[in-house]
Amino acid sequence: MLSYEQARxxxxxxxGKKKGPRAIASVxxxxxxxxxxxxxxxxxxxxxxxxxxTRDGYAVRSNEVSPGAQRKCAGEIKAGDVVRESLAEGTCxxxxxxxxxxxxxxxxxxxxxxSREGDFVRFERAAQRGQNIVSKGSEAAAxxxxxxxxMRLGFAELALAAQVGxxxxxxxxxxxxxxxxxxxEVVLIDExxxxxxxxxxxxxxxxxxxxxxxxxxxxxxxxxxRIEDLEEKIERGLKEDALVLSGGISLGKYDLVEGVLKAxxxxxFFDAVAIRPGKPAVFGMCQGKPVFGLPGNPVSTMVTFELFxxxxxxxxxxxxxxxxxxxxxxxxxxxxxxxGLTHFLPARVEWREQVPEVKAIRWQxxxxxxxxxxxxxxxxxxxxxxxxxxxxSVFVLLRKDVV
Length: 403
Ligand code: AMP
Ligand code: MG
Prior knowledge:
This protein has helices spanning 4-17, 155-163, 201-213, 227-237, 257-263, 298-316, 369-373; strands spanning 24-28, 36-37, 41-42, 52-53, 57-60, 70-77, 91-95, 107-110, 114-117, 120-123, 133-134, 145-147, 168-172, 176-182, 186-187, 198-199, 216-223, 242-246, 267-270, 275-276, 282-286, 289-294, 326-331, 335-336, 342-352, 355-360, 377-381, 387-388, 393-398. The radius of gyration is 29 Å and the shape is elongated. Strands 8-5-7-6-10-9 form a 6-stranded mixed β-sheet, with no helix packed on it. Helix 3 (201-213) runs parallel beside helix 6 (298-316). It folds into 4 domains: 4-22 and 174-316, MoaB/Mog-like domain (Molybdenum Cofactor Biosythetic Enzyme, Chain A); 24-47 and 140-172, Molybdopterin biosynthesis moea protein, domain 2; 52-134, Molybdopterin biosynthesis moeA protein, domain 3 (Beta Complex), CATH 2.170.190; 326-398, MoeA, C-terminal, domain IV (Beta-clip, Beta Barrel), CATH 2.40.340. By secondary structure, it is of the alpha+beta class. The longest helix has 19 residues, at 298-316. A hairpin with a 2-residue loop joins strand 9 (114-117) and strand 10. The structure holds adenosine monophosphate (AMP) and magnesium ion.
């Protein structure tokens, strides 16, 4: 049986092969959060475009400033002012953060390190050449590539695009991910379930996870545990860029998903992973599309999505597969789990005096959505560990949506 790392590699390998030209759309920077760039973005000029003061203070000639030195303040420069004159010897100019440093000046003295007496400024300490100035072109040259195709656009990337005037960005269209739940016991969330029926919460969590991963969910509802219904809905799902199913992949008599996928042409790369929850997870390629059969128990569905579907959505978006957001933390309560599988336990990490400390949450197993809803991470118990003591170092997989 594959470890979860090996299983992820299989997904990345197979879906990575499909990485080709994607449909591209021009998107406003206001709407491009989370999208993947399909173009390089270059600067329109040097950055900064002028020698910029990073402080409120006085523009000076550094060799004229020593402790106790006094200089006449000959002018004032605000951010945005056009500066034509140069700084005359023996003088200084008051300057604001973000303003252009006049030629002749080679340092800015912070206002805190000076005192003003009428037209004169007294300096408390020596000035170093270049201090508090970001020189023209030091952040980027003109026509320099500052964002590359394949990058995911977060808030800083969007700000950078805005800074250089790239108000419209060529972005890869988000992969459309079909979501199909299965099970005779599953009813729509706005229906009243019978005594032994359950609402289709998996389609809701899966759609949210698809969105967070950067895909566009296409919710296909629920298929009954019948070959014909499954086949019809799976065929429909295969029209999208990827298909994610929940339920119907264990060894029960009515777990028909794998068989139906095979019948419509799937080639499987794993159908079990050494994890709990989530062991029966299935991944294959079918009609050129990645297909995931995730176990139906809600927490299993959520864990296996994070581990295996997220990297596929990255690749289908034209980006690299992101690493898992694993963080080291100090165990705050002892653990005793059966070994042989890597466990992903709902847990809460808290930063006490900046040090992450983690505690597993009491839960009733992989059907316990409430436990996960009060968790902000999964505590990862390695395959070869059974008992872990307080104070030991463990890894947690962050829930990116709430941390
Ligand atoms: P399965 O993997 O099909 O054996 O399903 C395992 C269990 O997961 C079922 O007994 C249900 O309790 C639960 N389950 C299956 N599908 C869903 C769903 N769409 N939403 C919520 N729970 C589900
Ligand atoms: Mg089922």
